[in-house]
Amino acid sequence: MTPPLFSYRKHWAARFGTAPFLPMSRAEMAALGWDACDVILVTGDAYIDHPSFGMALVGRLLEAQGFRVGIISQPDWHSAEPFRALGRPTLYFGVTAGNMDSMVNRYTADRKLRSDDAYTAHAEANKRPDRAVTVYAQRCREAYAGIPVIIGSIEASLRRIAHYDYWSDTVRRSVLADSKADLLIFGNAERALVEVSHRLARGEKIGEIRDLRGTGFMVPRDWLPPAPATPDGNPWIELDSTALDTPGAIDAHTDPYAEHPTPSSPQAGEGSAQPLRFMSKADRHAARKAQRECTVIRLPDYEQVKNNPVLYAHASRVFHLESNAGNARALRQGHGERDVWLNPPPIPLTTAELDGVYDLPYARAPHPSYGDAKIPAWEMIRFSINIMRGCFGGCTFCSITEHEGRVIQSRSEDSIVREIEAIRDKTPGFTGIISDLGGPTANMYQLNCKSTTIQQACRRLSCVYPDICANLVTDHAPLVHLYRRARQIPGIKRIHISSGLRYDLAVRSPEYVKELVQHHVGGYLKIAPEHTEAGPLSKMMKPGIGAYDRFKQMFEAASKAVGKQQYLIPYFIAAHPGTTDEDMLNLALWLKAHDFRLDQVQTFLPTPMALATAMYHTERNPLKKVLGGKAETVSVVKQGRVRRLHKAFLRYHDPDNWPLLREALKAMGREDLIGYGKKHLVPSHQPAGTRAPCARKQAASPAPAKPARPAPGKPKSGKPAPSGDGRPHQVPRHPLTQRRSGGRSR
Fold first, then answer.
1. Beta-sheet strands, E only, within 344-427
2. Band of the pLDDT at 268, cuts 50, 70, 90?
3. Alpha-carbon torsion (179, 185, 189, 193), positive or negative
């Protein structure tokens, strides 16, 4: 059994009490009476003591366990000296790139350096290195040899096996092999982090800790852990993944009428009769569970997937099929003479445990060393509240599901109310407006499978695609009740919902739509159809545009009922795998027909381990079987000019895009869309002062047109899209468990 998160006996250093801020200098340590830190967290983000920021959540959790925790924030990585700032830790270094993958943070979808960093004081760029986890881990080794290094965060989590790296256009090794870390913690990391900290404090060696869920490490090729304590003492079984590339359940069903010898039975062939035992349903379940607990699946080696797209797509498929904490098995993958070993994912936190994490004594402010510096990510979330984690949408371009899991972990109403009151009472500048009650998706709060048994056995990649599962509870009543209670808190004037909405779920609850639209929409509501055409939507695992139409009708009716003019702001992705030029043209025509003029748009950016990234790299569809010559091919847009064209279709109204669009329409035989009528997409002539009609090269990021507020009845989305700069939505939560920023729904 997994011990409750707060059931451990506290480490002896608990006597020092709670720090106002986790120390970032020796002087702060001395003021607290410390001679050393037990754990030093190294992060690529500015240190903000708030549960939306990883180093704070992890640091305060370890502090609550009695450990002395220090922070080294955005160190100069060009030497090891900055990593000695707090001295030698007694237990380990914890290394994270921050709340985003460092490559996503530093580069656009066109592989160009960004000019700012939202997680840095004054938004200053270049305060973290490329592949920060690897660089920081190596510098920690140089600073203090022999001190264990544990890596985590979304960067480490999504690079835990061999993965396609968009920025180098290669398949790279596991981050474990490159960083030389002792342990990798992936997914929701609280359980593993607390357990490993207490075991190290008791004197256990880091190389002996090999049984924690949610951890990965390097082992010899022939290594197997001790057999689990099962009734029959089963030895470990290694399965070749190529035998498992099938949809649905992987294991054969246990025969309910099978005859099994008892442990004391004579061996077959000894000439004596064997007693027979009928297996009950509970016995069969226990037998299957015991078999899974001592089974490891061998994925194709790094050297194989590096050069074989089919095997890469296959490995990605098996990796995602083995992601349910209720039935996942261990995975291993060869890297040269050693293997990366990944234990099954962590068990989700209970509501009480999640409440405990968010109820810790955060200062709810940036560290005083930053003075009055503006930190954009802090400004964005300082008045927002995370009410849940996880996502069962399974959208292929998203990092959340494979990182946080499909099981929704929700906080209690009381805990959320306490945080609202803490914002009201402690956060400077609060005017009575809560900017968000949300999470990875706005409306998955307390939505889960109707049966724990079914949930633990399920191997679907999504609970809502191709349709909403009949076993999924879609009752929004708890969320409606939370909204109503939150609005009644003294001092709260208004609560906005800024996280993206899963509208195919919302239409199942008219009362929720009414509550949301009439009380929590400030004129605009962000939702993400992502596309209108069946081809790309099927590769995204997103619902058809009909669900958007149904929600739009409900949204407009609810707005009209209270005399409000409110508008939907839809988000779309250009150049996603499975998208053709015709698909983008049809989307542009849909936008024009609905009088949408998007200001900022997003071009697909392949992030490590996402299923859509596997499609982009391999041009195969890992949502279906890929071995045995049965792989479905996927059309992929990789050429810069075609990617710019797909982006231009989303901004058909921008004159700078018209030369490229006219040229494409002529090549597609759609010259009928060039002209000045209502049914034409682009005009025949180029206005003075814009790009010449003969222009052949399109700017990678055209200057946005001046936003215009929609006229009544004409929902032109003039409001800038905060996530439209090409960043996939990876989020401020914590380095080892994280949601996406910008709040777009999947």
1. 365-366, 384-386, 388-389, 409-410
2. very low
3. negative
Joined together, the tokens standing for residue 305 give: 């997937």
Distance CA 284, CA 637 (A): 48
Nearest to 614 by CA among 316, 322, 303, 333: 316
pTM: 0.88
Report how far residue 535's alpha carbon sits from residue 532's, in angstroms, rounded to the nearest whole number. 9
Residue 230: CB atoms within 10 A of its CB come to 15
Is 269 a residue whose pLDDT tops 50?
no
Taking only the tens place, the pLDDT of each residue in 296-355 is 999 999 999 999 999 999 999 999 999 999 999 999 999 999 999 999 999 999 999 999
Residue 82 CA to its chain's centroid (Å): 30
List the Cα angle 46/49/50 in 5-degree steps. 110
Q: How far is 476 from 73, CA to CA, in rounded Å?
A: 40
pLDDT for 728:
43
Average pLDDT on 477-486 reads: 98
CA–CA distance, 523 with 304 (Å, rounded to integer): 52
Q: Binning pLDDT at 50, 70 and 90, where does residue 231 land?
A: low
- Residue ranges, comma separated, of all CATH 3.40.50.280 domains in the chain are 12-228+295-342
Would the pLDDT of 121 be above 60?
Answer: yes
Going by C-beta distance under 8 Å and a sequence separation of 6 or more, which residues neighbour residue 115? 125
Cα distances (Å, whole numbers) of residue 350 to 110, 192, 311, 389, 412: 41, 15, 37, 11, 10
* Highest CATH level, class, for 12-228+295-342: alpha beta
Name the token pair of 418.
Answer: 């306490």
CATH of 383-654, one of 3.40.640.10, 1.10.630.10, 3.40.50.2300, 3.80.30.20: 3.80.30.20
439 conformational bin, left if phi > 0, alpha if psi -120 to 50, beta if neither: left
Cα 19 to its chain centre, rounded Å, is 30
d(CA 379, CA 219): 43
Per-residue pLDDT at 132 exceeds 70: yes
For residue 438, the cross-strand partners are: 386
Whose CA is closest to 289, among 212, 229, 210, 213? 229
Residue pair 212/199 in contact (Cβ under 8 Å)? The answer is no
Which residues, 6 or more positions from 381, have their beta carbon under 8 angstroms from its beta carbon?
50, 52, 435, 436, 732
∠ CA 344-604-609, nearest 5°, is 15
- Sequence ranges of the chain with CATH classification 3.80.30.20: 383-654
The gap between the terminal CA atoms of the chain, to the nearest Å, is: 33
List alpha helices for 562-692, DSSP H: 581-593, 611-618, 640-650, 658-667
Place of tokens 């962590």: 346
Averaged pLDDT, 566-593? 96
**What is the 3-state secondary structure of 41-77?**
EEECCCCEECCCCHHHHHHHHHHHCCCCEEEEECCCC
What mean pLDDT do residues 14-40 have? 98
Q: What is the pLDDT of residue 409?
A: 97
pLDDT band at 505 (very low <50, low <70, confident <90, very high): very high
